[in-house]
Amino acid sequence: ETGVTQTPRHLVMGMTNKKSLKCEQHLGHNAMYWYKQSAKKPLELMFVYSLEERVENNSVPSRFSPECPNSSHLFLHLHTLQPEDSALYLCASSQDLTWNEKLFFGSGTQLSVL
Amino acid sequence: QQQVKQSPQSLIVQKGGISIINCAYENTAFDYFPWYQQFPGKGPALLIAIRPDVSEKKEGRFTISFNKSAKQFSLHIMDSQPGDSATYFCAASPITGNQFYFGTGTSLTVIP
Questions:
Q1: Which comes out higher in pLDDT, residue A6 or B97?
Q2: Is the Cβ pair A41, B103 closer than 8 Å?
Q3: What are phi and psi of A57, to 5 degrees?
Q4: In the structure, what pLDDT confidence band is assigned to residue A19 with cuts at 50, 70 and 90?
Q5: Higher pLDDT, B9 or B2
Q6: Chain A: nearest CA to B111, how far in angstroms?
Q7: Residue B95: closest CA among chain A residues belongs to which residue?
Q8: Which end of chain B is more exposed for a tag (fewer CB within 10 A), N or C?
């Protein structure tokens, strides 16, 4: 157990649905991340939060909306997604955003958009 | 542009053999090179990492070889075991911040 919990593990949604992914870390870390993992592609960093403030948004479409209410919880709100958004969405945390901190990943949410 | 190039995409090795995965980068600002291991249904987990002030780092059966002049680094798994079957990702990050650039992954299968 890595200390980072993601729910749900699997999600199937239509293009008109609204859903949310949840991530919780029990490690006392100050930084949290959303990554997208697609087959045969590098992990793509989507969002970074440090002490609940967004510090990076890597040109992610507005149909993905992150929320970080506190340093232990991170959400990814989804609406009007496209089939190409189907992927494994990984949450990660690290102690801080200082140099070369180890990332702790959750098991991910496997998203299928129909 | 892909910052870190990883090969091969997939690898099949006999039990007891040596598994070798290669990565290359261009950005000379990269200063930290971790390898992550991912089992099916799980998130990636840090396996081993190296900084460019050394050419090799060994932890048990896992060794990173680093060639700064060639901007290449590789993971060697000695005495490969079926339990090593997983996807391996190399990554690189610059000296400032915690931005990681990942390779595309290598699916390793170790057959008994």
A1: A6
A2: no
A3: -140, 105
A4: very high
A5: B9
A6: 22
A7: A99
A8: N
Q: Any CB–CB contact under 8 A between B100 and chain A?
A: yes
SS3 content of chain B, % helix, strand, coil (to 5): 5, 55, 40
User: Does pLDDT of B65 surpass 60?
Assistant: yes
- Alpha-carbon span A9 to B26, nearest angstrom: 36
Give Cα B104 distance to the centre of its chain: 11
Q: Does B10 lie at the interface with A, CB-CB under 8 angstroms?
A: no
Q: Are A88 and A105 in contact (CB under 8 A)?
A: no
pLDDT in tens, B84-98: 999 999 999 987 767
Q: B83-106: buried (b, 16+ CB within 10 Å) or exposed (e) per residue?
A: ebbbbbbbbbbbeeebebbbbbbb
Rounded to whole angstroms, the Cα distance separating A56 from A35 reads 12
Which amino acid is it at B62? F
Give the Cα separation of B21 and A96 in Å (integer).
29
d(CA A38, CA A89): 9
Looking at chain B, how many residues does it have?
112
Cα–Cα distance for residue pair B68/B21, rounded to 1 Å: 17
β-sheet with A18-25: strand ranges across: A4-7, A18-25, A73-79, A64-70
Q: CB under 8 Å to B70, separation ≥6 — which residues? A: B24
Is A4 in CB contact (< 8 Å) with chain B? yes
Could you read off the pLDDT of A95-109 as tens digits, one per residue?
Answer: 988 776 789 999 999
Is B87 in CB contact (< 8 Å) with chain A?
Answer: no
